[in-house]
Amino acid sequence: MIYFDNAATTRVIPEAAQTVFKYLTEKYYNPSAMYHEALDVKNDLENARSVILNQIGGEGKLYFTSGGTESDNLAFFGTKKKRNSRVIISAVEHAAVYQSAMNLKQAGFDVCVAPVDGSGKIDIEAFSALLNADTSFVSVIHVSNETGAVNDIGELARLTKRVAPRALFHSDGVQAGGKIKIDLKSIPVDLYSLSAHKIGAPKGTGALYAAKGVHLNPVIVGGGQEEGVRSSTENTAGIMAFATAFSAAALHIDESAENLRALSAYLRKRLGAFDDVMVISPEDGSPYILSFASASVRGEVIEHALEREGVLVGTGSACSSNKSTRRIPEALNLQGKYASGMVRLSFSRFSSMAEAEEFADKYEKVYKELKRHVG
């Protein structure tokens, strides 16, 4: 089987699985308990926090959560904002950010959606025009989970602070963590979301980074874990596996990017041979995601046809795949039949050129068959 849907989730790497087993069967103690074994686990948890902070160049604090969705929600609802002030997001945010913004809109906030270009990258000029002194919160995705477009969040954050110095800038870094180099200490980003299961750790763990001076109010209350910001007994096994997988990914970050750029370039060439297939992802985007659209065959049809050939791909965010939505195709300005023909290939650092070649051959086979059928 060829698995090209790693933006949805990844296979747990052996090192992370071994870490989980260790913390479920040997070091299973509650880190909030006071005996030595529990204090030892608490120390391990803090070491994991330091590992991830160092990998993202963070000088603030890192709060562990249940995943990227909770991290995004905590950024939106755990921060203080002037009532009815302006909130800005991009048009291609993950559903966790988009729905959070819509909730704020219902509560009376002036929510504005900044447009993107055809590759999913934010239109900086249009974004700048939306900024005003009343802006209190901005959220722009770092790497688009739909197209792999990489936004210059440093520039966007600086633009925001220039117009609204007290505004908070958040970025969803779920598709960036462990895949591209991140140095949060060099840019004025206040909040940054991460997820474990996108880089070879288990589902159910994430983190929200908060820069120095950024105060968070709890969204989940209880025993006061995570410095009172996120109550609930820590998922120690998941957190330790998160740090293990993040470190492994960071160790291979340059090599992985080089290999995947070659893989992506090959697939661009193969897909470019079809006159009714349009590659959406930008060449300077993340090499981990390659999205394209067909004018002849719907994305879901292609997805299921490839599945029968032993190839698993996506048609966009798995969090929205069960909903009838045209938000992303419309944001990307996909016209006519291209709007329903979107397919997303997403890779891991273990994806190979041999898999890319086999995918291309099988795609060509099923696509020609489907075109004859619909024609």
Low-confidence stretches: none
* Annotated CATH architecture of the largest domain: 3-Layer(aba) Sandwich
Rounded Rg: 21 Å
Task: Sketch the topology as an H/E string, one letter per element.
Answer: EHHEHEHEHEHEEEHHEEHEHEH
What is the overall shape?
globular
Question: Do you know the CATH topology of the largest domain?
Answer: Aspartate Aminotransferase, domain 2
Strand percent estimate = 5-15%
Q: Whole-number average pLDDT?
A: 96
Estimate the helix proportion, in percent. Answer: 25-40%
Helix tally equals 11
Largest sheet: 7 strands, mixed
Q: Give the domain tally.
A: 2
Distance between the termini: 29 Å
The largest sheet has its strands arranged as 2-8-7-6-5-3-4
* Estimated structural class: alpha/beta
Main CATH class of the largest domain: Alpha Beta
User: What's the number of extended β-strand segments?
Assistant: 12
CATH superfamily label of the largest domain: Type I PLP-dependent aspartate aminotransferase-like (Major domain)
